[in-house]
Structures are given as structure tokens and as C-alpha cells.
Amino acid sequence: MDDDLRDLLRLMVVARRLDEECVALQRQGVLPAYAPALGQEAAQVGSAAALDLERDFAFPTYRELGAAVAMGVDPVAYLATHLNIWHGGLYDPSATHLAPFNAVVGGPVTHAVGWAMGAQLDGTGGAAITYFGDGASSQGDVHEAMNFAGVYRLPVVFFCQSNGWAISVPTDQQVAGGSVAARAAGYGIEGQQVDGNDVTAVREATRDALQRARAGGGPTVIEAITYRMGPHSTSDDPRRYRSTEDERAWAERDPIARTASSLPAEALSSAEEHAEAVVRETGERLRALPPPPGDELFSFVYREPTAPLLDQQRAWKESQHA
Ligand SMILES: Cc1ncc(C[n+]2csc(CCOP(=O)(O)OP(=O)(O)O)c2C)c(N)n1
Ligand SMILES: [Mg+2]
């Protein structure tokens, strides 16, 4: 049991230190922008640790570094997306079972439902998990996706990180009725709230929901109650819309301190030591990434490139030889 908790702690500490490094890299001009996951490590690591990486598939938003770490995705390949020169990062979604991350609010939810329908038709036995926020939960697409999944009993887990904010808008102004989980009843599916800062509770709830989905029991909405301890992104200043008392109250519920408190002190120090090495190596490799080939600018835009696009590609190539 202790070993298991140590593993979860290690993943959360790696996620947090990498996250801090990303903010530093943004300040140094290496990353153009970054969306910190500070405070959401238990929700992300706990849920991703519940996945069966042979069969299941995860659909992340722009804030899922902790999930990527827990899924064993190379952080350099993941963070290449934040460099903003590589579309979809450098990891292979079909090998890692982590979709390219999605900056469209609510976007990954529809994708997960589509994947789940494919899994149901193919009989692969896997389930999808989609990440989304409290703000995304009020997008029309998310409601359509939940209803569709409910009608077809699709193997999908709707994992909402209710982190208090949609940029500067508090959750109570996004979620009428106060609960994302309660909406599940309207779609005829399971819904539950979980303490999103309790890593083992999150993992257990997600494991149960995934198992039910794989066994044909249909979708589940899990609403993990957590808190975005940092800014929305590196362009945001949360002091303009929230109080330091609120931040302080949530700092006392820090998911890492909470897990560490039930383990010997040495568990945290060894996790920190390991994380430091991961951060150093990640930073070095990220800085050393070569720019992508310029003509990739024109690739992957359409399946069949259009005539104007081909003209532009030709003009670009000629300009390179000028
Ligand atoms: C379709 C769409 N609308 C608006 C935006 C701008 N936007 C980016 S993040 C965000 C707030 C999302 O809040 P939430 O779903 O709670 O996720 P969080 O950022 O808290 O993780 C908005 C409105 C967007 N990216 N996509
Ligand atoms: Mg939010």
C-alpha cells in the first residue's frame, strides 16, 4: 500500500516540478505560453493512473501535464506542443493512447465520445476518458456529447476538473445548480463528485467508472472538486479577480502535502530528488529540439491539399532558394 502511494506521490511531484519549470521556461522566452496545473496534480495523476494503457484512450485539454506524466508520455514530446511550433506535440497518440491536447474548450469531450463509439463498434473492450473543466461543462457540445453517450451507452468517462475557475469566472457562474455530476442524471448516466485533491479517491472512482464502461455499463460523469492554485495561464493575473484568503484556504488542501503526510518524510525527499533529475533532463532536451522542417507548415492542413495551398507551398520553396 505504501509503495503504491509512494508511486502516486512521485508522479505528482514530477508533475508539479515540471509544471513550475514550464512557467520558468515561459518567463525565459522558451515557451510562448503555458497553462499551469498547480494544485490539480491529484485529480490528473489519480485519474490517469486508473487507465488500462493497452485498451483505454485519454483526451486531454491544454492543462493535463499531470495526466501525461502518469501515462508515461515523454515530457519533452508532450511539451513540444507548448513550444507552439509542433502541431500536436511529438508523441505518438496511437502508441501512448493520449490524444493531442486540445485548446478548444469542450473539444476533447466530443472526440472522446466519437472514439468510444468506435470502440463499441469494434468491440475492443477499451474505454475513453475525456478531461474538461467546469467552464467547459457549460458548452453546448459537452451536453450533446453526454446525451449521445447516454443514448448509445458508450464506454466513456467524462472527467471534469472543477477547479473553481474558467479564467476569471467562478464555477458558480458557469454551473447552474452547483454540480456538474448532477447533470448526468438528465442523460440517464452515472454521476458522482469526488474530492479531487485526494489522489487515491480519484483513482478509485475513475477505476470503477472505467470498469463499468468497459463492461457495457455505460458512461459516467466524475466531477473532481479541486482548485487551480496558479493563474489560468502565464498571461493571467488571478489577483484581479480572487482573494488571497481563498488561495490560502486551498493551499491548506494541497494534494501533494496531503499525500506526503501519510508517508514517511523520506518518501517526499526521494520524490523531489527524482523530480529534479527529470526536470533538468526535460529542460535540456526541450531547449535542444530542432525547429520543424519549414515545409511542414503546409502539411497536415487538408487531407487533399487545395490548389491555393500548393501555390503557397511552391512560393515558399522558391523563396528559400532566392
Ligand atoms: C470554444 C472556446 N471558447 C473559448 C475559449 C477561450 N478559453 C480558453 S480556456 C477558457 C476557460 C475554460 O475553463 P474551464 O473549462 O473551467 O477549464 P480550466 O481552464 O479551468 O482548466 C476559455 C473561455 C476557447 N479556448 N475555446
Ligand atoms: Mg475551470
TrEMBL record:
<dbReference type="InterPro" id="IPR001017">
    <property type="entry name" value="DH_E1"/>
</dbReference>
<dbReference type="InterPro" id="IPR029061">
    <property type="entry name" value="THDP-binding"/>
</dbReference>
<comment type="function">
    <text>The branched-chain alpha-keto dehydrogenase complex catalyzes the overall conversion of alpha-keto acids to acyl-CoA and CO(2). It contains multiple copies of three enzymatic components: branched-chain alpha-keto acid decarboxylase (E1), lipoamide acyltransferase (E2) and lipoamide dehydrogenase (E3).</text>
</comment>
<keyword id="KW-0560">Oxidoreductase</keyword>
<protein>
    <recommendedName>
        <fullName>2-oxoisovalerate dehydrogenase subunit alpha</fullName>
        <ecNumber>1.2.4.4</ecNumber>
    </recommendedName>
</protein>
<dbReference type="Pfam" id="PF00676">
    <property type="entry name" value="E1_dh"/>
</dbReference>
<dbReference type="InterPro" id="IPR050771">
    <property type="entry name" value="Alpha-ketoacid_DH_E1_comp"/>
</dbReference>
<comment type="similarity">
    <text>Belongs to the BCKDHA family.</text>
</comment>
<feature type="domain" description="Dehydrogenase E1 component">
    <location>
        <begin position="10"/>
        <end position="276"/>
    </location>
</feature>
<keyword id="KW-0786">Thiamine pyrophosphate</keyword>
